[in-house]
Amino acid sequence: MRLLNFMAVLIVGGTTVDVIFPRVPRLPVWPAHTEFTAANLTLLAEPPLVSIGGNGANAAYVAARCGARTTLYSNFASDAFGGLVRTWLTEAGCRLAHPHATRRTPVNVTAANTRLQRATLFYPGEVPPLPAAAKGFSHTLVCGWPHPPLPTLALRQEKWRTHGAFTAFDAGPILGKTPTLTQLRPVLATLDLFIANEHELLTLTRAIRIDAALLKMRAIFDGHIVIKRGPKGAVWVPAGRPAAVPTGSPRVRAVNTVGAGDTFNGALMAALADKTDFLPALHFAANAAASVVRSNRGVLGLTVPFLKK
């Protein structure tokens, strides 16, 4: 079911084509030679899943599929992989800005075993551009790696807020040097919503437990905090309040977890843009993410849940 009465959503983040090999029995090893042998070969019983990927493109695809008027600023090119991405996004109703900004479209190749553990090869491409203005957008989300430089991001988000936008930032994934909370302060000062998963929150705060990590975050940031915890659901700390509100997640048989967190982000932004209260928006996002986890099509397997306001 599609949602109604949307404001416009701007999403800035990376785009990839995901090639995901499920249920891989073992990873091949580097041999001492250059020949093609059994040691460096893993035979598979099924073909790979080819799907849209990248934190920005996934979230934008989902937000658009949920009915939001969505624009994506990203970093894919006019090559063959870029053509796939363009088709998926435009068919979902997503508007593309600077769709040919780079020479090569990023690609992510992932092998996953039956326990959903991953081994990944990732070509990230260039940092997605940041639009100078956000006039006409009610909600913005910056996500994915590599992130724009934090000082530049802070300046842009501050400008977007002067245009009346609700600003959100997903801190993950943390693949390079971990920023300190001091380095994050300028970005946090321009945010309405901070998003991370549990691992990222603990890494950023140098804390051992999630409750201690949330206390550290609340000491320097007064906006909404949403921490994604996979099958455990999410934790929401409402803006201006100290107490965390746990939210559940539907129990589903997990087929593929790639893109679940991005799906959560896109559905959450869509629901908030529909002027939905925060708690039902979180439930809506969790149900959308669960539909992707149980699908063998990745984010393309999204089933848009019914939104109960």
Secondary-structure map with pairings?
Blueprint: E1 8-12, E2 16-21, E3 49-53, H1 55-65, E4 69-73, H2 80-92, E5 95-97, E6 107-112, E7 118-123, E8 139-142, H3 150-162, E9 166-170, H4 181-188, E10 193-197, H5 198-205, H6 210-220, E11 224-228, E12 234-237, E13 245-247, H7 260-273, H8 278-293
Helix pairs in contact: 1-2, 1-7, 3-4, 5-6, 7-8
What does this entry show, briefly?
It is built from eight helices and 13 strands. The protein has 309 residues and is an alpha/beta fold.
Overall description:
With 309 residues, the chain is of the alpha/beta class. It has one domain: UDP-N-acetylmuramoyl-L-alanine:D-glutamate ligase (3-Layer(aba) Sandwich), CATH 3.40.1190.20. The protein has eight helices and 13 strands. A nine-stranded mixed beta sheet has the order 5-4-1-8-9-10-11-12-13, sandwiched between helices. A four-stranded mixed beta sheet has the order 3-2-6-7. A hairpin with a 7-residue loop joins strand 12 and strand 13 (245-247). Helix 1 (55-65) crosses helix 7. It starts with 7 loop residues before the first strand and ends in a 16-residue tail after the last helix.
